[in-house]
Every structure is written in structure tokens, then in C-alpha cells.
Please model this.
Amino acid sequence: MQQPSLQSRLRRLRNACFFALVAAAVGDASGQADRVSDGSWTLAVLPDTQVYAESYPQHFDAQTNWIVDNQDSRNIRFVLHEGDVTNRNTAVQWDNAKRSLSILDGQVPYAVAPGNHDYGPGGNAADRDSHFNKPGYFGPESPYATQPNVGGFFQPGKTDNSFHTFEAGGKDWLVLALEFGPRDTVIDWANQVVSQHPDHLVMLLTHAYMYFDETIYDWDAKGPAQSWNPHAYGVASQPGETVNDGQDLWEKLVSKHKNFRITFNGHVLGDGAGYQSSKGDHGNVVHQMLANYQFKSQGGMGDMRLLEFRDDGETVVVRTYSPVLDRHDRAFDQEFTINLNELHSPLSPP
Model:
């Protein structure tokens, strides 16, 4: 094997120093991810990977490889992808994404809710056409679509609206993975799915729901004051097209069912973080979370969310961890603990 040149060795040294400085600046370079308590199970959440699919596919690979490698030690039962899998909805970027996500195939079940950059020519969300729905990627008959945990899809021939079930911690869970700015007909279908699973606790996964001001998207009340609302995209202007944002989803879907517990989304820039808890129509508490890191160096340096569900059935520890840097982000809005059945005060610096 050829020995690396002096220039190559210096470049590696510079990269190592850079990553060490980044880790020290943004989190705790602990050397390994926090251990989980005995009896806990873990939910892994992948925020927007668009920059990885376009320019840094090794970071996407690092995330999914880490999940598989740590599946047993951390009892990882399910993986959610919050959308914007790609940046431009191109075949090359979907090839990268497929390679990274296929690492999970047959290992850890997962659900994907495509984002605005996954639709339309060049990822401009001008229509609802996406490579995601093609059989060669994540469409019908793909390994993604034929996972044993998949319960069904909204539309024949397309997989971008799906539901999934899994068991963890002695409880049955239902995941609704919905398109960017879900249509009214998609919400009607989702309501039927939840009603058919009254004994499952429910998670909503969709690309745009919460904003970084700790409230949910609300076009009727705030309009463009909240940037990147689904109502502002080209898909909303198509004849006969309907689009729903966070407030719409809350009123038409989430608040109506007593078994809803959590919502997840990415999409939003700013500080890329948001959280609130609210009571639904039946008095049940719903925890709503935004996480997005695409604006950070190299598209996020592998940051992802790890939720540890403790064996008491109520306590959930939310952490942010990067397998690329092997460090935790300990900021107040990146690591916190909630009780599934209790309202949580707004997140604030200590």
C-alpha cells in the first residue's frame, strides 16, 4: 500500500483539528454516545439530509451505519426521516440517499416523509412529482415499501404517504408519514388510519409543522411572517390543490385523537429547533418537535435526534448526537427530558 504523502498527512491533521474544534464549540466531545438505561428503547430521528445527498454522502452513511451498529446496545426500534432527503430531487442525489438508507434495510425499520426539496423539477416543490415514488428508489416493491412494519399507503403506485406500526416498551405505536403540506384527502385518509388503530400510540412525521418561534405554522394567522410555510410554495397554487400547514394539521388531525403523543418535523431554518406541548380535544398531551441542522457546517455534520423512552412508559430523554463528530450537543433546546403524559414548559436557557 502506498504511503500517504506529507501533504495528505497534513490535510488529515488539519481536518482532525477542525472537527475537534467544532465538537468543542457546539457540544460535548464525550468519546461515545450516552448510554441508555436498562429497559429503555430508542427512536432515531434523521433531520434534513439534503446537503449530504448533494455533497457529503459520507455523513449520511455515518448516521445509518451508526444506527445499525448500535441497534442492540441502545435498543433502537425505529427510525424516522423528517424529509428533504435530497436537495434537488435528482437521480444522482436519490442514488446517494438510497445507498445510505438501504443500510437500514432488513436491520431497523424506518419511515420517510418527503420534503419540499424532494418534489418538483430541481426540488422546487412546483408539483408533487418525486423520484421517491419510483420503484428503483422507495416506491412500490422497493425494500422500503415492503418492510414488514408497513401498514399501507394513501395512493396506489405511490409511497410518499404511508403508515407504519411497531412495538416498543410494551406498547404499540403507529407512525403516520405524510407528504409536504398534506392535501385534505391525505388528512382524511390519516384520520381513518388512526381511528382503525385505537390501541396504538400515534406519531406524526411530516416535513413542515413546527416553526422555530416555538409555535406551529399558521398561515391564516401569520402568513409569510413565518417563512417557508407550505402555503407559500408552488404546489399550493395548482388548480384544485389543497395544502395544510401545522395549524391545519392540528385542527384536522392531531388534536382529534386521544392516542396522539408526538409530532416530528424538519424544514425550518433559523436556529432549526422548536418545541411545544399542547392538549388535544380529549385531554391527551401532544409533544411537537422541530429539529433541522442543514445550515450547519457540511449540512449538519451528522447531527441527529435520539429519543430514549424509559421503562416507566412516560419519561423520554431527547438528545442530539453526531456520529461524524462523536459528540453530543448539550444546548438546552437540543437535550431535554419530557413526560409523555404531562405538559412541558417552554424550553429556555438554564
Observations:
- Residues 1-26 have pLDDT under 50 and may be disordered.
- The chain has one domain: 31-339.
